[in-house]
Amino acid sequence: MASSDPKPNDRILPFHDKIVTKLKPSLLYYVYNPSDPLALHSAESLPSRETQILDVIKTYAEHRPLGHYCYDLEMPLMLSPEGSPMSCRETLEEFEPVNAHFSAQVHALFNALKACEDSTTESNIPILHKDGLNLCIKLGLQSYDIGLECWHRTLHSRRLFLTNAAALPALSSVTKLEIDTDHSYEISFDRTRPVSLRVPLELTLRLPALQELDCSWLWERTLVPFESPELRRYTREWEGPWRDSRHEFARAVDELHEQIPISLRKARIYFWKSRYAFNEDQGIAMPNLVYPADEDPISAGLRTLTSHLEELDLRAFLTPDLFKSPVQWPRMRHLRIEFHPCRPDGSWYFVGPRDENPHPEGFEVTDDHYPPTSPNKEDEELDEEWDQNWAGTDDHLPDMFRTEPLADRIEPLLSAFAIALKDMPALEEAALFTQLSWTPSEERLAQYGDEAPYDAEYGGRRWGLRYVPGKDGVDGLVEWQVGAWRPHEDVIKLFEDLGSDGKVKMVWKPFDFMNWCGDYK
């Protein structure tokens, strides 16, 4: 795939010609037909998944109308070829029935809920709550019938997508949609199948009364700083699919945003998990996920998507493109934006206390940054090294040292944020921040000796600002939490100018330090 024309799945080559998959033994069995790759054939004598969902919902409704329903969308159990181990890499032929199974379950879920709505209308007996339904879709982990010989099969890069999304029935009862993912115990993303960033938007379009969208993790992650070099290589986030998914999101927003229900007012959109924020290696080179676009696709897509909202809780790799003028967010009341210290183009908003900034620019994503699609020598060598060096540990060695803002990178973000706030007439509160940590590697800490700027054990802190507009004769407030650093006077002036009906008070707060092992909100 040429880096200037990313097309998901074009690189995937065929390998196996047959795969058998199944659900729980008591439910449905599916057989992959190689002559019809997207066909999953079930035994006709067994009840359909749609009927099962409908029966469960009606059972719940016997006690009270259903107001919350969480659907566990299970991945099919992958069976090894008889008499031989499963190949190291999943092929397109093996992925297609899994994706068809994913799509079939989503269609079955929507069809069953539509049947509930129709049944309530015809019988006047409430199955679904009159105030609306909170629908949660929880994606299950991929499982296998026997233990795998290596890690490659448990770490998925190819994203699931919806087939024939436009055929989903419109559900007038759903007022909140949650998309969640099961998490394994060893590594929080192994056996997790990521989903195309189109899917939340496509589902939203079929929910005309939707008020709230909740996406707790949209499958982005950085390299986990395992002590084991083999584990680092196994768990690599392949840069090609990562880049492609971000560009796909922008295209989906451009195509679909005008169809988003006017009722949608609130969204929580987290692209990466909080637990990764204090457990990274900030000394490695990062990919440029923006090129060949002129602006960051995620930031641009979110700028358009947010125009529909009154409340947004966002966690993402961002650039000032999110606030590129003109920002038209007339309904926005509560805005909470957490940005990653690394920009999506691979550069950084922060440097070390001694201006350390290894790999200051991101590297270009090329054909070499896609996972292999067939057996290869590199995989074999990695498996051999893992067998020889495995010590029964998955210890982490983070190198978190970027604690000082780089003015020529962070100030454009702050300035764009201040300018965008002027175009939010309904705004009640806004926050823009990131999470920083002084958790350096042993080698880096030794270089500082007694001059280390922070206690390594409690080096985590929130860096950013909070804005509350003035009203009813009360001055506006800009609450900075940036340590001893101060932005240029021109940046401060932009925030002072927000007080059109009065003054804006500037408050400089000290850092609140936290244990880096903990989660945060």
Concise summary:
Residues 359-370 have a biased composition (Basic and acidic residues). By secondary structure, this protein is an alpha/beta fold.
Note down, in words, how this protein is organized.
- The strands form four sheets. Strands 4, 6, 7, 8, 9, 11, 12, 16, 17, 18, 19 and 20 form a twelve-stranded mixed sheet that branches. A four-stranded antiparallel sheet has the order 3-2-1-5.
- 25% of the residues lie in helices and 17% in strands.
- It is built from ten helices and 20 strands.
- It has 521 residues and is α/β, with parallel strands linked by helices.
- A hairpin with a 6-residue loop joins β1 and β2 (29-32).
- The protein starts with 19 loop residues before the first strand and ends in a 7-residue tail after the last strand.
- Residues 359-370 have a biased composition (Basic and acidic residues).
- Residues 359-379 are annotated as: Disordered.
Q: Span between N and C termini? A: 39 Å
- Element string (H = helix, E = strand): EEEHEEHEEHEHHEEHEEEEHEHEHEEHEE
Sum up the overall morphology in one term: globular
| Share in helix | 10-25%
Strand content: 15-25%
Q: Which sheet architecture does the biggest sheet show? A: 12 strands, mixed
Q: What is the total domain count?
A: 2
Which class do the helix and strand fractions yield? Answer: alpha/beta
Number of helices: 10
- Quaternary state, please? single chain
**SS elements, strand count:** 20
What is the strand and helix layout of this fold?
Layout: E1 20-22, E2 29-32, E3 40-41, H1 49-61, E4 68-73, E5 77-78, H2 92-123, E6 133-139, E7 174-181, H3 198-205, E8 212-215, H4 229-234, H5 239-256, E9 266-270, E10 287-288, H6 297-305, E11 311-316, E12 334-339, E13 350-351, E14 363-364, H7 377-389, E15 404-405, H8 407-421, E16 429-436, H9 442-448, E17 460-468, E18 476-481, H10 489-496, E19 504-508, E20 513-514
Parallel strand pairs: 4-6, 6-7, 7-8, 8-9, 9-11, 10-14, 11-12, 12-16, 18-19
Antiparallel strand pairs: 1-2, 1-5, 2-3, 13-15, 16-17, 17-18, 17-20
Region (Disordered): 359-379
Biased composition (Basic and acidic residues): 359-370
